[in-house]
Structure formats: C-alpha cells, structure tokens
Amino acid sequence: MQEEEVDMAKRKRAGRPSQRARALLDDRTCAPGVCDPRRTQGLRAPAPQATHVLVNLEGPGVFLGAAVSKQGGTNNLTFVILDIDGRNVTNLSFAAAGNLGLTEQNPFGIVLRQSALVKTLTVGFPTPLRFASSLRLSVKVSEPNVVQILANVIHGGV
C-alpha cells in the first residue's frame, strides 16, 4: 500500500475492495446502522408569526442531528419542534433553552449557541434515532421581526 501525507498525520491509501466486500456494501450493511448520510436544508426568510415546516422527510431513515439558526426577533419565543413518526421529540423555544442553561453539550441533546446576530439551537442524541415513516422539523414563530430561519438536518438510510 502507498502512504500519503495528510496534515501532520499519515493515512494509508486503501486498495480496491474485494468482491466479498463489495457484496457486503451492496447489501446495505453500513456501520453503525447509517447508510447514505446526507443533509437536508430548509429556509424561511422572512419568518412571520406562524408555524413553518422546514424539513419534512419520509422514512425509513435515521436522524443524526439538526441545527436551526434564527436571525432577528424580539423575545426568542420561537419554538423548534421535532416530530418523529408522529411523536414529539423536541418542542423548545430559544428563550427556554437559554433559561434552562442548555448552552453546553449535555446528555439531553439540545444546545443553544449564540452570537450578536444569530442564535442556533442544535439537536442531537448519543445514538441515532430511527424513523419508520416520517421526520418533521418545524418552527413556531411567536415573535415579530424574525429575519430568517435556516434549518439543517443530517440523516441517513437504514
């Protein structure tokens, strides 16, 4: 095998997979249970006071994480809502996340990060969450002057 230098580390260049390895990949045996990871994005600009579905996925699939960024608004009463297979997983406002101290990585899986202009609420759990039929990420804007909301969901197949 040939070695290639990559930023202070060495990486061995993998040879061509064997016929058996290719057959295993074709049978969708992805480890650890996530095949074809990808990002789906939703944007609402401007975001008037209402409920907006930003990402709506059909299953089956695996949820790995999400980030919802909000620019503008007056009181942070914009709620991030994650429903998997019709069951609510997360429904929390930007204000509540800050008031509850969810500003660092934690086992609850929700973290609020903010700068002077943008607030971002991330959702991710220690293990992937599978969905059989649907995954819906939406926001309920209950404050004026929200300039835009951008959502990214990282998900994969099963």
Describe the overall structure.
The chain starts with a strand and ends with a strand. Strands 3, 5, 8, 9, 10 and 12 form a six-stranded antiparallel β-sheet that branches. It has a four-stranded antiparallel β-sheet with strand order 4-11-6-7. 9% of the residues lie in helices and 54% in strands. It has helices at residues 19-26, 94-99, and strands at residues 3-6, 9-12, 35-44, 51-58, 61-72, 78-84, 87-93, 110-114, 118-123, 129-131, 134-141, 146-157. The longest helix is centred in the N-terminal third of the chain and has 8 residues, at 19-26. The chain has one domain (34-157): Sandwich (Jelly Rolls). It has two helices and twelve strands, in the order ββαβββββαβββββ. The model is unreliable at 3-14 (pLDDT under 50). By secondary structure, it is mainly β. The radius of gyration is 19 Å and the shape is globular.
Question: Which CATH top level class fits?
Answer: Mainly Beta
Question: Given the C-alpha coordinates, what overall shape results?
Answer: globular
The end-to-end distance, rounded to whole angstroms, is 32 Å
Could you give me the name of the CATH homologous superfamily? Protein of unknown function DUF2961
Report the helical percentage: under 10%
Q: Classify the secondary structure makeup into a structural class.
A: mainly beta
Number of helices: 2
**Total separate domains:** 1
* Gyration radius from CA atoms, angstroms: 19 Å
What oligomeric state is this? single chain
Beta-sheet strand percentage? Answer: over 45%
* CATH T-level topology: Jelly Rolls
- Look at the structure and give the mean pLDDT: 86
Name the poorly predicted regions: 3-14
